Amino acid sequence: MKYNIFHIVNKIKDAASKPSFCHSDWYLKYHLEIVLSLAQEFSIYENVKFTYIIELLVWMHDFGKIFNCNKEYDKYLFFLIENDVDIKIANQIVNWITEIDAKCNLNKSAIEVQIVSSADAVSHLISPFYMFYWKENAHICTENILKENRRKLEIDWQKKITLNSVKEIYFPFYESLKYQFNIGNKHNV
Predict the structure, then answer these.
(1) What pLDDT digit, counting tens, does each position of 102-127 carry?
(2) Contact present, 160 and 125 (Cβ < 8 Å)
(3) Which of 60, 70, 113, 114 could form a disulfide with 64 if both were Cys (CB 3.0 to 4.6 A apart)?
């Protein structure tokens, strides 16, 4: 069964672009669209057909941030059902989002989850994500920003990127950021 998710995608795009959303000036172009492109690419690497379910998972994975209801999964489910997604598929999407959010044993999750989780994490490696974080948190001292960036980088690399082919391809990006954030630098020990 194929669903037309165009109206769902448009609602998410609209919400991500509203000035009331704290990341509205960059989130759509420099995060969600990159995650979508990477998920399409990673589906090819994994020999998995890129379906509307993977696309829906991409657009929904940060629903809580965009709609200010982080981890209120009943609201995610309501949104999907309200927008004509079959209840079984809606439940599956929400269950997968909870797995991604938990960041625990994602390497044992469904391939769709691994594709989107890996795409989300890689988007942080290849986009201006860390620059935006710094800009939005300019009131925080540099050392604390770097410490938080190190924490986020390691979670992405160790827990969220589960696809071996992706780790191999994007290892230089990880190493570069690791160096920039001084992880493993003898002067930072």
Answers:
(1) 999 999 999 999 999 999 999 999 99
(2) no
(3) 70
pLDDT of amino acid 189: 45
Q: By the 8 A CB rule, do 5 and 51 touch?
A: no
Tell me: the pLDDT tens digits for 3-57?
689 999 999 999 999 999 999 999 999 999 999 999 999 999 999 999 999 999 9
pTM of this prediction? Answer: 0.94
Spatial contact of 105 and 94, defined as CB atoms under 8 Å apart: no
What is the average per-residue pLDDT within 58-76? 97
The CA–CA distances, whole Å, from 62 to 12, 33, 74, 132, 152 equal 10, 12, 14, 17, 16
Task: Provide the residue count of the chain.
Answer: 189
Residues 6+ apart with CB under 8 A from 114: 46, 106, 107, 162, 163
> Which domains does the chain show, CATH number per domain?
6-188 (1.10.3210)
**Separation CA 165–CA 8 (nearest Å):** 31
